[in-house]
């Protein structure tokens, strides 16, 4: 208890008698590692119970000079004399910072200087330029997406047409005017009134292949006719736009056509198109509401002649409309809103779609109307034939026949026929990955006898090879050792397998000989020239 009382009494005396010493000790810190307040409290607390020279004498003079220890001066004047001589903030501050009037800048002033430096280092014009660049990139990306969609529908490489195919194409072009005049004469002599002349008197080009494509890199091609019968006056155009409001409240709004009206006003301001040019404007959400069932989709497809869709919602709208629009040949065509919509409508009215799906033996495309002049129809047919020759699977040599006729198929006149064999046509049998040579990995297997190894391909086919010659062998066979209790018994009979392989080899040799004979006959026929002789088969009469 006596020790606690000695510590408490000097602490009260220090606060009452010596307030200035505390301030002088706090301002000039002697060492950065220790706090001056802690040393002052320790020295004053020790000075109250013990003589003054014990505590300050070994600490303070040892770090400064030895002369201060020998002086018999009292405690208070020695600290006052050391304070301005050893270290003062006025001497250090102007050395680091230039202001001559300010001695010690406060923390608030330092923060203000830092903030001013940050503001000066970053110019506001830089931020604005970045935002403008971002907006430009967004607009360019929308255009690029549309360009990529257009590129996806057309192949990157254009197939070259050889000399023989060019001759066949020219023959079909020369035969087309005769078929056009014959069809016009037929319908003129028929002289029947039609309720739908635009449909009944439309001309279609029907193409039949020798071999159907097993794989393809595109499902259709778009052909722009030089002379089209469709225009704004006789064709209804429906435009599908994205939703302006994506909120949940807009999804539950009972007014379905609200955003369509907003789009109509916006299109009129931006592009100058009114209801005279566009028959109907729909939004993506409105299409999903009114065409929910297959019946509704069929009725929507039959309501309008041409459908255009904004590139931002083209893929989703196309997948939603599905097969009903594909069967009706009314699949929407994409366009970019930033470009003139009038140009997109004109291109859509001139565009016809030629399908190139897999396993199709016959395709059909519209080439015009009998009400057009013969010269315009011939130019349309020539354009379509050139496009088909460069894009169809197997080239023009794979085409068996081309017929020109009315939409109902009666009558239909041939303009090109090729009776060549389909075995002469070579088509890819799979994707690019399937046509690449298969890589197999071979290694030893512990379950195989000595001298054999196993080879595994990427298509999971397994072969057994000889280690020295890498020749494939049949293993295990019925002649190998096995017991009656084995669950998996070998079923490979080498004699049967070899007999089957020989039968296949003979069949392939026969096919090759037949193809060779046909080619020789075709070359001989071409060298002799055209012969208009009628060959009749002799029929044996039985008595």
TrEMBL record:
Domain of life per record: Eukaryota
Matching SUPFAM superfamilies: Ribosomal protein L1
Compositionally biased region (Low complexity): 80-99
Pfam annotation, one family: Ribosomal_L1
Stretches the record annotates as Disordered: 1-174
Compositionally biased spans, kind Acidic residues: 107-116, 134-149
Protein name: Ribosomal L1 domain-containing protein
